[in-house]
Specification:
With 234 residues, the protein is of the alpha/beta class. It has helices spanning 7-28, 39-49, 90-100, 113-119, 132-141, 155-162, 175-178, 193-205, 212-218, 222-233; strands at residues 34-36, 53-55, 78-81, 104-107, 124-128, 144-147, 167-170, 185-188.
Length: 234
């Protein structure tokens, strides 16, 4: 991603962009059929290459231990799982947790960890990289999963639902295809602390139906992926 590059890398990328675009377009002309992981990506393919793209959602399943347990409920810990890089906007989650005085568990590693830890207060706990089993345990027992960035798909959002947990996420990109406002999660429209705080508070006020959250995730199962992809190949 250009957003993750250094200043010198960004300059080199911009200088090379016309040649790279021409090579990319030439390669794309030889593609018989495009298949995208979301309608969001399919729209980008059509803008770039002026051709339609089929959509096959990637497979999602619960983490290894895979059975949801009783949540801490409202007031329990919030959770973020993933890389600690600039474009993920984990800084918004850290600041929102401190504003709310709510425990936020941050699992993952990345170049921004030291900076985020310096910004954080007593309510944020950085646990570093975790195993699949530990990630499943964290998802099982959080009160909500937080995500502040637009993504092409966002597998972790669906994984949270698979563990019976609601999601608080930015209302852009693939989240609008996987999440249902008020049923599987709460959206916030702006990437600022106030919006994240308000969304977490709304999430706490709602009663989440334990069967509705995992049911949403079953639509993105490995079986569904295999069947849809098989049809596209045929």
């Amino acid at each position: 991603h250009v957003a993750m590059a250094t200043a010198s890398q960004r300059l080199a990328l911009r200088a090379a962009a016309p040649v790279l675009r021409a090579l990319d377009r030439r390669a794309a002309d030889g593609v018989h059929r495009f298949v995208s992981i979301s309608r969001h990506v399919a729209a980008r393919v059509e803008r770039a290459y002026a051709v339609p793209s089929a959509v096959v959602y990637p497979p999602v399943a619960p983490k290894m231990n895979g059975v949801a347990t009783a949540s801490d409920g409202p007031g329990g810990y919030l959770l973020y799982l993933g890389r600690l890089v600039e474009y993920k906007r984990v800084d918004l989650l850290v600041r929102a947790a401190e504003r709310l005085q709510r425990r936020l568990v941050i699992a993952g590693e990345g170049p921004l960890r030291a900076r985020l830890e310096a910004q954080a207060g007593p309510h944020c706990e950085f646990v570093g990289p975790v195993s699949e089993q530990r990630a499943g345990e964290l998802l099982d027992n959080c009160s909500a999963y937080l995500f502040a960035r637009e993504e092409d798909f966002g597998i972790s959002l669906v994984e949270a639902n698979a563990h019976g947990r609601p999601v608080v996420c930015y209302a852009k990109g693939r989240a609008l295809e996987t999440m249902v406002a008020g049923e599987t999660g709460v959206f916030f429209d702006r990437q600022d602390v106030e919006s994240v705080v308000a969304a977490v508070q709304e999430c706490d006020r709602r009663t989440w139906h334990a069967d509705r959250l995992p049911a949403n995730a079953t639509g993105f199962s490995a079986e569904a992926f295999r069947e849809q992809f098989r049809k596209e190949i045929e």
